[in-house]
Structure formats: C-alpha cells, structure tokens
Amino acid sequence: MAKLKRSFFTSYGLCLAAASTLALAACGGSSSSSSPPPVDNSSSSSSSVSSSSSSEVSSSSEVSSSSSAGPIAVETDVQLYTQASFPIGVAVSAANEPFSIFNNNDGVERQDVITHHFNELTAGNIMKMSYLHPQEDNYTFGDADVLVNFAKSNGMKVHGHALVWHPDYQVPGFMKNYSDDWEAMLTEHVTTIVNYFDDTVVSWDVVNEAISDSPNQGDGWRKSLFYNALPPAAEGDIPEYIKVAFKAARDAKPEGLDLYYNDYDNTANTARLNKTLEIAAALKDEGTIDGVGFQMHIYMDYPSLNNFENAFQQVVDMGLKVKITELDIPVVNPYGSATPPPLPEYGETLMGQQKLRYCQVTQVYLDTVPEAQRGGITVWGLGDNESWLMNQFRNATGADYDDVWPLLFNADLSEKPALLGIAEALAGEPCTSDF
Ligand code: XIL
Known about the structure:
By secondary structure, the protein is α/β, with parallel strands linked by helices. Helices cover about 35% and strands about 15% of the residues. It has 16 helices and ten strands. The strands form two sheets. Strands 3-4-5-6-7-8-9-10 form an eight-stranded parallel barrel, surrounded by six helices. Helix 11 packs across helix 12. The longest helix is centred in the C-terminal third of the chain and has 21 residues, at about 350-370. The protein is globular. The model is unreliable at about 10-70 (pLDDT under 50).
C-alpha cells in the first residue's frame, strides 16, 4: 500500500492570508466568537516536521511560516471512503440549520468535502421524530427529501436516525399526550417513515438510547414516554415499545434495510453494555435486528481500546453488525474531574495524539469486526466548530469551551491530522502520532 500523501500548514495561518474580511470570518470558525484561535508556538516550526515528505509539501505550507497560531491542516491525496469496504459516513446539517450543507454561504463547499470523503450521510437532526412526523396525521418529508436526493445523486447512501428517541425537543407534540392505542400509533409512525424512503436509505437507528442514564440503578431502563406507554410485558423482558418499533420496521421492509439499536457509552459502561446486549438478544430472537450502533462520543483516553474491542466482540459473537454511528473525539473531557479542566493548547502535539486515537479506534474496529459484520463508521459532524459537543458540555457541566476540536476538519473545512489517522488505519498502516 502506497504511503498516504500528506503535508501540512496552519489552517489559521491560511485564514490570516485570506484577502477579504468575509473569508477571515469564515476561517475563524464560530466566527462571531471574540476569542482568537489558540496559540501553538510549535506549529511555527512546521516546516521542519514536514521535511520528511518535503517533496509533497504543498505551497500552502509557506503560509504557515508567517503565522505562529492555530490548528493545523494536512493536505492528503486520500478519499476516505475509497479505502474502506464498508460505509464511511458523516452527520450533516441540512434544511435551514446552522452549517446546513444547503445554505447559500458555504453549503457547496461543504458538499464538495462530503462527496470527496464519504459515501454515507446521517441527518444530524432533520430525520428525527418531530421533523418527519409533527402531527398525528401529518408527515413532513420535504427537508429529508432534499438530503436523500443529494445523497442519491452523488452515489451515497443514508443511515436513518432515529425512528424512536426520547428527548423532549424531538418527540412529536401529539405523542406527549397520546392516550389511544400506542402500539398501533407507533407501528404506523415507523411503518410510514420506513416505507416512504427508497433504497438510498439503507439502515435505521430504530430505537435510540432506551437505557437509563444510570444503567446501574433499578432495572436500568429509561422511563421515557415510550416506556411508560408500552413497558415490558413481563419481568425480565425488554420494553414492549422496542419490540413494536423493530417489528414494524422489519415488516415494512423485510429485505435490504439494516435495523440498529443505538446507544451511547455502551463500551466502557458494563451495565449499559449488558443492557444493550439484552436488547440485541431479545430482538434477535424475534428476527428484527441487524446490528448494534455504538455512538462513540469518546475522549482521548477514555474508554480504553480494550473496552472497544470487548464490546464489539460481544456483538460480533451474536452474529450482528457493529456500526460506529456518531464518532467524535474532543481533546478535553469535562466529566473526567470534579470541575471541567481548562482547554488544552491545541497544537501539533495534541493534534498528533488525536490522529493516533482516531487511527487506533478504526484499527480496533477493523481487527475485531469481520468484514461482513461491519456496518460502517460515521463521524458526528464535519468542521470542528459545528460540533454539538460545546453546547452539550455547557449544558451538562457549565464548561464554557469555545471549541473542543473533536472532528476531522478544521472550521475552514481543511483536513486535520485526525482524518489522516482514519486513513492510515484503513490503509493498514501502523498508527502513529506523526504527520
Ligand atoms: C444531537 C445533534 O447533533 C444536535 O444538533 C442536537 O441539538 C441534539 O442532538 N446522540 C444522538 C444524536 O443520538 O441524535 C445527538 O445529536 C447527539 C447524541
């Protein structure tokens, strides 16, 4: 396998060179942010690091010499998805969401990056419950149509997300007071949505996060609206609503649609992993599940690679597919200590470690999951500045991070060393922090 071509320059340096204010704002990421990108003095010596591949260094690296700040971009000649025999996906914003790939600002640029590297899309939001099914007798597929048609016309597939999920903001209002026949209503909801889309949509997260946030406590089930309406039929059973939703999806399209149970923190958290496996086993008995989705909102040093391997292996041993559905790796973990730590300096060293981590996660996936059981790897967002994590961390811990740099692309959509990490693992190269 030929060595992957790479060169690098500071992304912010490139932005400094941008002629117009507009371009500068775009490069600044959450451009309204008043704080400058972090200073990374090490990146000013970038030319010495890239000297090992000097013939490949692009002219843009010259820009970095005039700057000492900012996240680093690499230039590769890879296209991620062409390196893999399984889907390589990305979650995208659409319709009129911020960072929509259909916006009039940089939407087309986003589309270009996406079609270059990915062959599967997940809607970050617009295929959730209330977006598709706002009222009992009203389905609104227009925004999803635009996204699915975009995928289709570019030879890409779509992973549907998610038919049943508990958060208040995305549960259709009418369901919140629904007192009629829940089984019939939920069946209709799932059936209508699954039937609507053509074979561009190749898989669905049928149920997302059915396990409690504290899976060690009580019976471990999340006491959601759905649980309360259709609880387990008998002690020791999984909740009925999960069975109903999966059966409806399977009956709607018995062939050619992979059905996933999806959850977070189901690698290191043994209680959550066991509950996940309990759901998978019960649905497997009914013939209504194809795989388990691991969200993989993970950290630089948590969970361990052994945790990933163990969790994937158990699903593999059940004969089910393993899909990494929402991968992101922020460079700070606000939950890891009593108070959220300060932002680290996001320079060459940390970007290299993040590249290593992305590579290792991909490598564990390849080493543990046989080809026929690989549902794919999807990253949760395109540019760092669009990640959901800054809001999530703020809401959960009060941490006020401008950026946590969790993804494969800088705010200006240039490629990060992290992308090279995935590419190297896919190419069978050893994982290193070098770039
Ligand atoms: C997130 C989106 O990225 C945000 O834009 C939205 O505000 C909240 O939801 N697990 C999931 C995803 O299954 O649907 C969540 O997506 C992230 C956590």
